[in-house]
Specification:
By secondary structure, this protein is an alpha+beta fold. The chain is built from eleven helices and 20 strands. The longest helix has 18 residues. Bound molecules: adenosine-5'-triphosphate. The site of adenosine-5'-triphosphate (ATP) has 12 residues, from strand 2 and helix 3.
Length: 396
């Protein structure tokens, strides 16, 4: 049984019991609505700035996180996401700016006086304590009664799918099990805020995917406001209600995973999230761009004539046309020469040079079925179509 299956577990005191299975199935719609419908933010990061000596680690960070929301801080190494999480926790002082939690300014409160539970990448369990003792640690410090601690620990072990593991020491548990203990410990005092600092990074790929699903479902079920740091974009897309893409200490874009994936507002975001093809071009008219000798119709373009632009299109948005396809007569059909073919199991990833623009490689993905309908071999020529509505144009 996974810990998401356990309907008998009482939700924590500050966390309204939320989802039925059907509500979980609607997470997607909810994600799109989350920032509009959930009222006042539970956590507010206001104008936070952080320097280490001369180095600016965070600049002018504003972020509102709504009750029950799962927000991922995402970005390349060194972009400042861990520093921001540590400032939210009070483990690091901001140079300026404020942190407001549940309407209260906690900016100057030490971590011990703030209302959060945290899970670190390295589990950070006490090696000389059993799972039960690790989970009970905060409850004992809070001077809870023995009976209450025992009941709560049992409840938490069940919540994270570790019934029967209470007497094991960290060294007797797998990485995934240790991280479940760390999660149970973080939830023990029913905090208002759950902070996750790359909690899955140390785990192997299969455990990671399983645990991320379980953490997401648990978070939704408990309704606990959660901020997670990750550098793994697929993790953020899968888990977050909203993702915050950071770059060099600033926020590049905040949005639902779908918005960020489909409507990145800069080439940096487009490139960081998923695979994106970029072609350099020049605007011909408001709805046409020239890339080398290729003229592409585009449906969205705010750049003016003669302006240098970068045209972007996702691999899965490029259509592969069969030799008899009626769409060959449409605009934006490009002939491209196959350079390399990579077998991915369920699909092929193919890199090609478009004719008329031999400098910039493009990548497409074909299902095995699609691949069987075209001549897919080194140096073969494929007809591709770039649907105008799928092309994004960024000022260069
Ligand atoms: P990673 O994914 O590699 O952990 P990150 O986005 O979490 O990266 P941070 O750990 O927040 O990045 O660090 C942001 C920047 O601040 C980095 O350039 C880092 O070297 C710097 N930095 C962080 N902590 C300190 C410190 N205590 N003293 C000096 N510089 C620091």
């Amino acid at each position: 049984m996974t810990f998401s299956d356990q309907s008998s577990v009482t939700p924590t005191k500050k966390s309204p019991a939320s989802s039925s299975i059907s509500q979980q199935a609607q997470t997607f719609q909810r994600s799109e609505e989350v920032s509009r419908n959930l009222g006042e933010p539970y956590l507010q990061v206001e104008n936070v700035h952080k320097t280490f000596g001369q180095f600016v680690a965070l600049r002018d960070i504003h972020l509102d996180v709504y009750p029950g929301e799962f927000v991922c801080l995402l970005g390349p190494s060194g972009c400042g996401k861990t520093t921001l999480l540590r400032i939210i926790a009070g483990l690091e002082d901001q140079t300026s700016g404020r942190i407001i939690q549940a309407g209260k300014d906690v900016s100057k409160l030490p971590a011990a006086k703030r209302d959060f539970g945290i899970v670190f990448q390295s589990y950070a369990l006490f090696p000389n304590l059993t799972a039960t003792q690790n989970i009970a640690y905060g409850l004992q410090n809070a001077k809870e009664s023995k009976q209450k601690i025992q009941t709560r620990v049992e409840e938490l072990l069940e919540l994270v799918g570790l019934e029967g593991f209470g007497q094991k020491y960290p060294s007797q548990m797998s990485g995934g099990q240790q991280q479940r203990v760390a999660l149970a410990r973080a939830l023990a005092l029913s905090p208002g805020l759950l902070l996750l600092d790359e909690p899955l990074s140390a785990l192997d790929a299969q455990v990671r995917v399983k645990l991320r699903t379980e953490i997401s479902q648990l978070q939704k079920r408990l309704g606990i406001t959660t901020v997670m740091v990750t550098h793994d974009q697929s993790e953020a897309l899968a888990m977050a209600d909203r993702a915050v893409v950071m770059d060099k200490g600033y926020i590049a874009q905040v949005g639902t995973p779908r918005t960020i994936y489909q409507h990145p507002n800069t080439p940096f975001v487009a490139n960081f999230i998923g695979v994106m093809n970029f072609l350099h071009g020049v605007v011909v008219t408001s709805n046409q761009v020239r890339c080398g000798n290729i003229i592409l119709d585009v449906s969205q373009n705010e750049a003016s004539s003669n302006q240098a632009v970068t045209v972007a299109i996702r691999p899965e948005d490029i259509q592969i046309l069969r030799p008899d396809s009626p769409e060959l007569a449409l605009s934006n059909v490009v002939t491209a020469e196959v350079q390399a073919i990579e077998f991915l199991g369920s699909a092929y990833r193919v890199t090609l040079y478009p004719e008329g623009n031999a400098k910039e490689l493009i990548t497409i993905e074909l299902s095995i079925q699609e691949a069987s309908k075209v001549d897919l071999s080194a140096n073969s020529l494929l007809k591709l179509r770039f649907p105008p509505e799928r092309i994004q144009v960024f000022a260069a």
